[in-house]
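2024-03-11 09:14:02 DEBUG pipeline.ingest accepted 1 chain
2024-03-11 09:14:02 DEBUG pipeline.ingest length=416
2024-03-11 09:14:03 DEBUG pipeline.predict start
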Amino acid sequence: MELSRRVRSLPASSTLAVLARARALRDRGADVLAFAAGEPDFVTPEPICDAAIEALKAGLTHYAPVPGDPDARAAIAEKLSTENAIPGVTGDHVVITTGGKHALYLALQCLLDPAAPGADPPEALLPTPAWVSYAPQIRLAGGKVVEVPTSAETGFVMTPDDLLAAVTPRTRVLIFNSPSNPCGVTYTPAQVEALADAIAHAAESTAPGLVVLADEIYEKLIFAGAEHRSLGSFAPIAQRVVTVGGLSKAYAMTGWRVGYLAGSGEPGARLAAAVARMQSQTTTSLPAFIYPAIRVALMDCAADVEAMRAAFEARARIIHGRIRAMPGLVCPEPTGAFYVFPDVSAHFGKVSAGGTRIETPLDFAEALLEEHLVACVPGEDFLGAGRRCVRLSFACSEEQIHAGMDRLEAFLAGLR
């Protein structure tokens, strides 16, 4: 059996690889402290679970409409219209997908075409460091990844000038993620507005077909005085923006696999129809009994979300305070999501107490796991400045954060 070039060139998830290695150590009885998973440590709020249970008891066990139950789609449209101030969104603009990852995959498949032989591929702009699945999904759709680099020193923020310098006539897509995985940064409303102006200028002058995929999966998990502003809320570019979201992170529903996307106006409705058509040939729909739970989550669980957000904010202060005090680590303050992304490159060239020479984030992460049983994600697969960083998730208890930071301090103290 010969496998396709497509899958042979597809990298495995570095996050899942770290989790597998940490799990193997735990299975052997090791006291591993995991800071790798992008998953809340809370359970799904009870009203959401009750809604799904009642739907099962009521017999909602048959096929559902491909783009999702109309009432659930209408609830998402209402949320985007009122909370996010995105104009021109109705239920017809919404497609509910098997997680936010699948929404991004389907959108890119609908927006990008592989280049004809001898032609240049369409370009997708990707501010880096970036979540590990963006670049592979762009390439799977036939696009070329064009990195827009940011750094820890500048807070991992892409400026309008950075964006405009990367735009060419072949630019088709921009992926914009705020709050950010892996960087933990939330763009301010003023920064988002400045980017909206730059996008409008780029579309008028250079890239008329430019579409923005705004990944807002962490929008409710913001802190340190941050304020979320949706890129799609700016009227001049609203019909160029496809907002991607889901319930996994804010509602502790990762295993439910509830994602969605929505555009605005006639272009948004056309994309939604195309995404639904593609979804009809892949996953079809979510289980029917999940849709009532979506409505309950959006309408009745704000207090639960706030309780989890407040816990993450307290954890963010703890872990950032501890890391900031450690020698050689440069780490912007996290203002959203549940990650810190310290630059560890000051320690490259050193040797750990266990004899590992540290030249890369992967070396750093592997030595930290093997010698001090702390699991974090090496930054190489996040691209750009990620090649100098590691990602630690603080979706864990305050006690674990302190214990893990004690071990990280001991690891750093042993480097020579």
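2024-03-11 09:14:41 DEBUG pipeline.report The chain has 13 helices and 14 strands.
2024-03-11 09:14:41 DEBUG pipeline.predict end
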